[in-house]
Amino acid sequence: MLRVKNLNVYYGGIHALRGINIEVQEGQIVSIIGSNGAGKSTLLNAISGMVKPKEGIITYKGKELPKTPHKIVDLGICQVPEGRLIFANLTVKDNLMMGAYLRNDKKKINEDLEKVYQLFPRLQERINQMAGTLSGGEQQMLAMGRGLMGNPDLILLDEPSLGLAPLLVKTIFEIIEDIKKMNKTILLVEQNAYKALSVADTAYVLEQGIIKKEGDAQEILQDKSILEAYLGKT
Ligand code: ATP
User: Fold this and answer.
1) Residue closest by Cα to atom 28 of ligand 1
2) A GO molecular-function term, please (predicted)?
3) Alpha helices (H) in 27-165, listed in sequence order
4) ipTM of this predicted complex?
5) How high is the mean pLDDT in each 10-residue block of the chain (234 residues)?
6) How many CB atoms sit inside 10 A of residue 160's CB?
7) Are 147 and 79 in contact (CB under 8 A)?
């Protein structure tokens, strides 16, 4: 579904991604794990068109991706950014509707809104609350719900567990598995290696801009060197 070939990204003199190759199969959860500054967000930003690579090709459903973010969104790729970036002064419902602003299929939008409420009952309880007054976990749910309101095929999820209490982390990862069951494909970047590997089909380990390891997520989860290097950090 998505293929990244020889991706190189620089920020001035910093070579943030060094010849990255990844593949995401339709219907899968693919996790990219790695510590702070490994280049995880940069990879998602390059796919969503927010960062311009110096070199490399990204193809989606067999065709090269356009360079502009809104054209990439039009193709059904949605990014849920780190830090959530919700509209603090809008209500929960208005934030969700912002996710559907490119659509005009009203009936389907309402159906998707219902699905989002089923997935996140907490959001439904708070539809008229200002988004800025939600807890961190609720804001994460809102950012994910808003992404789903665009009816994407591929969701780029950046550190969904960041800053959340353990119980909420568990909930968020259960919801990620539920989203997969809605026939969505998910590319997830996470520092919480254990959780990210537990839900994934395929995984990549990113270290200082280079893919150090890749393969079946459950096999990587059993890999002693990975456990030692990354699970201490979760
Ligand atoms: P974290 O888990 O801490 O968010 P990450 O794996 O997502 O880290 P990136 O945010 O992709 O890592 O950063 C990769 C490298 O690129 C880091 O060294 C970072 O300082 C650098 N970097 C990221 N964004 C910029 C920018 N806009 N300008 C300059 N350097 C940047």
Assistant:
1) 11
2) ATP binding
3) 40-47, 69-74, 92-98, 106-119, 121-125, 136-148
4) 0.93
5) 98 96 98 93 96 96 94 94 86 95 90 95 95 92 95 96 89 94 96 93 96 95 83 54
6) 26
7) yes
